[in-house]
Amino acid sequence: MTKISTTRTQEKHLRFExxxxxxxxxxxxxxxxxxxxxxxxxxxxxxxxxxxxRISAQVQTNSPQITLSWPVIPSPTSCLxxxxxxxxVSWGASATLAANATNYVDTSVVVGSNYEYRIxxxxxxxxxxxxxxTGIETPLVESRGKVILLVDNTQAASLAYELMRLQxxxxxxxxxxxxxxxxxxxxxxxxxxxxxxxxxxxxxNVKSVFIFGRVPVPYSGSINPDGxxxxxxxxxxxxxxxxxxxxxxxxxxxxxxxxxxxxQSTLPSDMELQVGRVDLANMPAFAKEETELLRQYLNKDHxxxxxxxxxxxxxxxxxxxxxFGGESFASTGWRDFATFFGASNTFERDWLTTLAxxxxxxxxxxxxxxxxxxxxxxxxxxxxxxxxxxxxxNSWGAILAIGIRRIILCVPRWARPVTRSLxxxxxxxxGFFTIWRRASPSASVHGCPRITVVFTRQIGAIVMWILx
Length: 468
Known about the structure:
By secondary structure, the chain is an alpha/beta fold. It has helices at residues 160-172, 188-201, 290-305, 331-341, 351-355, 382-386, 401-408; strands at residues 2-4, 30-33, 56-60, 65-69, 78-84, 95-97, 103-106, 114-122, 127-135, 145-152, 175-182, 206-212, 219-223, 231-234, 274-278, 315-319, 346-348, 362-370, 373-374, 393-395, 421-425, 435-437, 444-446. The longest helix is centred in the middle third of the chain and has 16 residues, at 290-305.
C-alpha cells in the first residue's frame, strides 16, 4: 500500500460549498427505459419542471443575508420553507410563505456558516420540492480525509506516470491516498476485505473508494427498475456498505444460490463510503484499446482539475419521457441544475446537435432504452462521433445504461461522474468525466468520485531565487 500525505501544493480550492452553492453529491441523469412514454393530460400539460422548486441563492456579507429565489409553480395552494444545518437529522418546524411566493430573504444567518434549505410547494394535484445548501464565506477545507485507490495491477506499470499524477492531484485537493494494486481475478470478498481494513483503521477519515481498471465487479439482487426483466445488477455499493451481511443463498430470478451474485435487492444499510469506478475493458466501438482509453481518461481528469479544459457553467436537458404517469424522471436534472447554475442557466435542447458545438458542465438525457440506444439521446457510436462540447452525466435504470455510461467516459472531451457501457464509453473519450447512476442496489458512479464542479488552477511549479 502506498500512502501519500496531505501536504498541499496548490492554490486555494474553491468549491460551491465554500461560497454560494454547496453540494456533497453532484449528479446528472441519463435515464434509459425500454418502455413506452406516457404522461398526464390536463388543460395545461404538466411537465417535470412543475414537480421541482428550482432554487438558487444569492448571499450578502454586509448585514448578512441569504436570498433564495425560484420560478413560479403553476396554481400553488401552499408554500412551506425549512432550514437546518448540514448534519441535522430532522428539518424541524416549517415557515409558511405566501402560496405564490418566489423568493425568501433569510437574515438569521452568520458569516462563515452553511445552511440547508428545503421548499415544498403544493398544488391541487401534486407537490413540488427543492433543496439547496449554501453559506456566506465559509472556510475552505484544507484536509478532506482519505480516499482508497484500487488499481487493476495489469495497468499499473503502463500507466505509472498518469496514476502518480492522479495521486498528486488528489493530494493537492486535500486528500490522503491509500493505494492498493489488486488482481482483476481476485474475489469481490477479498477486494472488500482490503477496503474494510482501511476503513476500520480510521473510520473518521476514510471517505471514499476510487476503483480504477477491471477490478472485480460485484453483482446483487433480482430487480427490474427499467421494465425490461428481472436480473442481478452490478453493485459497486457492496464495496461501500461495510456493516451488514451480504448473502448468496436465495433462489431468485436470474440469481441462484452460490453463483457469486448476492441476494440483496436493496441496500442492507446506508453506505459508509462513496464509491466510483473507471473500467474501460471490452469497448469494441473504440479504436483505442483498454490501456489507452484509461490513459485518455486520466489525462482529461488532470486537465479538468488544472483548468486546462473548461466547460460553460450551465445545464443541458434532453427529456424524452415527460411526466410519465407522474414519475417525472427529469425532475432531478431540473432541480439540481438550478442550484448549480441558477434556473435561467438550464436549457432544454437536443443532446447531439447542441453538444456538437457547445459545452455544458452538466447534462441530463432520458428516453426509451435498448442495449445500444437511448431514445432521443444517442447510441454508443453517435455520442463519441458527434459530441464536440463538454458535459457531465447521471443515469439510472435500463439495459442501455450498462453500455452508454462507459462510452461517455471514453469520449475525448467529456468529463465528470457517469454510470455503466453506452455510458461507460464516454469516460474514455476526451470530454466526459463522470456519470452517476441511481438505483438500488446498482447505484454507481463511473468516474472519479473525488472530482468536484469547480476547481481553481493548481500551482504547477515554484521557482525559488536565492540572492547573495
